[in-house]
Specification:
The complex is a heterodimer of chains A (345) and B (295).
Chain A lengths: L3 E10 L2 E11 L4 E5 L6 H9 L6 E6 L2 E2 L10 E4 L11 H11 L4 H15 L14 H14 L4 E5 L7 H18 L2 E6 L2 H7 L2 E6 L2 E6 L1 H6 L4 H6 L6 E4 L7 H5 L7 E5 L5 E2 L7 E10 L4 E6 L5 E6 L10 E5 L6 E4 L8
Parallel strand pairs in A: 3-8, 3-9, 6-7, 7-8
Antiparallel strand pairs in A: 1-2, 1-4, 4-5, 9-10, 11-12, 12-18, 13-17, 14-15, 14-17, 15-16
Chain B lengths: L16 H28 L3 H5 L13 H8 L11 H31 L5 H13 L3 H13 L6 H25 L3 H9 L4 H12 L1 H17 L2 H6 L7 H9 L8 H32 L5
Classes of the chains: A alpha+beta (345), B mainly alpha (295).
């Protein structure tokens, strides 16, 4: 187990810089999720930590040692890949034993460790099979098993659930969470799925264009996003954004804030409540209602043409194209600078 | 959703116009190609008096294997009358090391060019491929000089080196394209697992790439076995491969033309590539197709 420190880590491919000076501290035993849209550099960053990608400048430390020039296999990391990357011609047992064999571990110890890991992941029955005779979920478990047997300081997961179907994804997610609880090893997990990020992470790192946008606990990111990007990236459906003139005349008074052209107001769909015109912060014409039974997603458009979504318990009992009024608790509205996108205190 | 569908085997008319034209054409084409082979076989089984009668297509009245024995054991190639067997063993001695060395080097080349990209690796590959487009007759004389300076000219090693060099572009391309279709994550997983350049190659990549090795072996075995030019130039008179000896038997300008012996000798020389194709035809196609999609 070990902590991990990144200092001003950069990555260039030729003249193109894809990671622009990342600083990050990861505490021993923490579950950290890198999240961001595709092409944001999260996988590149993970591969740099793994030692699969050269670090252009800056330093990566695992524990107290800088590992910039240490080979991937000597860094004490294990990695789980999106495509599982199991060796197709080897049995499950051999797949799991391969890394230990490279490290010249005694045969008896290899056997013990493989069997112990197989036990944890409930794949003991498949040890003699080859990967092509396993289902996707089983393959991913083997891949995780291969990572466990090496008893790494840091686990690295590169979108491990993306190739699984929805039901299996939920189940494997739970298993990974349980695994972290049990092993208490530092884990870094890359995903573009914010549900995985919210449910698994102790700490989420939101990346965009090779820069860190915000680091914080899932709840922090949800409740106090540092900027408009994070606010929209975390939460589903994503946060609605309004300019001052999209809102009702009384909005400023109701929210207890002065509204002006250079600030934007963010409101999460789940925080908007149906209300009477006197308490309305925003009004819109009803365009579409998606009733999911448990809740309804109401799609609306303000008079100024801004689309927004409200998540309500029951669909509003009014015909299409009628005007619907929404209010919000003042403390649940977020204010951002319209130009920089930064959060206003 | 259930719909009413016809069940059972689809009725087929054997003698449809389409089938008659199709099979008719195929049979005619096959006969056209097989006719020379037929003539060779029957002629090789006839004695000379029967051949002189001139009935090329008639089967042998008296079957004799003497021409085959003579072709193998005692036909004259220039000064020596030891038959083709000398050439056969020379060819084997050229073939085995050439195939092994060229494929060993090319597979490592292809692997390195796919997974261990270095600065200028693309340039290196382009240069290598460029070599494939230069007619090799241009390089014959320079190679003669180089081999002379290395004191290898007129030895078996000279032919082996030349075959290895000329096999390199196409084989490297073959292997590189095959390895390009292997998922990169597999390679990365092996690196994290602690395997290095050779271990990944030997323990992960080799077992996964048997089809392409079969293709490479077929290409090299048939190509090298059928080679005449390099053998006649670089091997030296005592090391002539079978093809060169065959030529010397067939084209000898002295004495009577023994057509039956010539036919037997030719069949003997062509036997190995034929056997290779028959055994491995299916594997060959599969291997070629496996690497063809990605470039």
């Amino acid at each position: 187990m070990a902590s991990l420190t990144l200092r001003d880590v950069r990555k260039n491919y030729g003249d193109i810089q894809v990671v622009h000076g990342v600083d990050l501290d990861i505490v021993d035993g923490e579950f950290v999720v890198f999240v961001g849209p595709s092409g944001c550099g999260k996988s590149t960053l993970l591969r740099m930590i793994a030692g699969l990608e050269e670090i252009t400048s800056g330093s990566v430390c695992i524990g107290d040692t800088e590992v910039n020039d240490v080979a991937a296999s000597k860094r004490g990391v294990s990695m789980v890949f999106q495509t599982y990357a199991l060796y197709p011609h080897m049995t499950v047992y051999k797949n799991m034993a391969f890394g230990l064999k490279q490290a010249k571990t005694p045969r008896k110890e290899i056997d013990e460790r493989v069997k112990a890991a197989a036990e944890i992941l409930q794949i003991t029955d498949y040890l003699d099979r080859v990967p092509r005779n396993l289902s996707g979920g089983q393959r991913q478990r083997v891949a995780i098993g291969r990572a466990i047997v090496r008893d790494p300081e840091v686990f690295l997961f590169d979108e491990p659930l993306s190739n699984l179907d929805a039901a299996l994804r939920v189940q494997t997610r739970k298993e990974i969470a349980r695994l972290h609880e049990r092993l208490e090893t530092t884990m870094i997990y890359v995903t573009h799925d914010q549900v995985e990020a919210m449910t698994l992470a102790d700490k989420i790192v939101v990346l965009r264009d090779g820069r860190i946008e915000q680091v914080g606990s899932p709840i922090d990111l949800y409740e106090r996003p540092d900027n408009a990007f994070v606010a929209q990236f975390i939460g589903s459906p994503k946060m609605n954004f309004f300019n001052a003139d999209d809102l009702t005349v009384d909005a400023g008074g109701l929210l207890g804030r002065e509204l002006s052209a250079d600030r934007q107001v963010g409101m999460r769909p789940e925080h908007l409540m149906l209300t009477d015109p006197a308490n309305a912060v925003v009004e819109g014409t009803l365009e579409l209602v998606e009733n999911l039974g448990e809740y309804a997603l109401v799609h609306l458009r303000t008079a100024t043409g801004v689309e927004f979504i409200a998540k309500t318990e029951k669909p509003p009992q009014v015909p299409k194209a009628s005007t619907v009024c929404f209010g919000i608790a003042a403390e649940l509205a977020h204010f951002f600078d319209a130009n920089s996108g930064l959060r206003l205190a | 959703m259930h719909s009413v569908e016809p069940t059972g085997r689809k009725p087929r008319r054997v003698l449809s116009t389409r089938n008659i034209i199709l099979y008719g054409f195929l049979i005619v084409a096959a006969l056209y190609w097989l006719l020379p082979l037929y003539v060779m076989i029957v002629t090789s089984l006839k004695g000379m008096p029967e051949i002189r009668l001139g009935n090329v297509f008639s089967p042998p009245v008296e079957v004799t294997f003497a021409p085959w024995v003579k072709a193998w054991d005692s036909a004259c190639t220039g000064l020596y009358c030891e038959g083709l067997k000398v050439g056969f063993w020379n060819s084997v001695q050229i073939l085995i090391p050439s195939v092994i060395v060229s494929i060993a080097i090319a597979s490592v080349n292809g692997y390195a060019l796919s997974f261990w990209r270095f600065k200028g690796s693309e340039f290196f590959f382009t240069v290598l491929l460029f070599g494939a487009f230069i007619p090799y007759q241009i390089m014959i004389y320079p190679l003669v000089i180089i081999l002379r300076e290395l004191h290898l000219f007129s030895t078996l090693w000279a032919v082996i080196i030349v075959h290895t060099i000329f096999g390199m572009p196409i084989l490297t391309l073959l292997f590189r394209n095959y390895f390009a279709s292997v998922p990169a994550e597999l390679f990365k997983a092996a690196r994290v697992d602690g395997a290095g350049f050779w271990r990944i190659f030997l323990q992960i990549m080799l077992p996964m790439s048997l089809p392409i090795f079969v293709v490479a072996i077929i290409l090299q075995v048939t190509g090298i076995w059928n080679d005449f030019l390099f053998g006649v130039i670089y091997a030296g008179t005592r090391n002539f491969p079978m093809t060169v000896q065959l030529n010397n038997i067939v084209n000898s300008s002295q004495g009577v033309k023994e057509y039956n012996v010539n036919m037997a000798a030719t069949l003997l020389t062509g036997l190995l590539p034929l056997v290779v194709y028959f055994i491995s035809g299916k594997l060959f196609v599969r291997g070629i197709a496996a690497g063809a999609v990605k470039g």
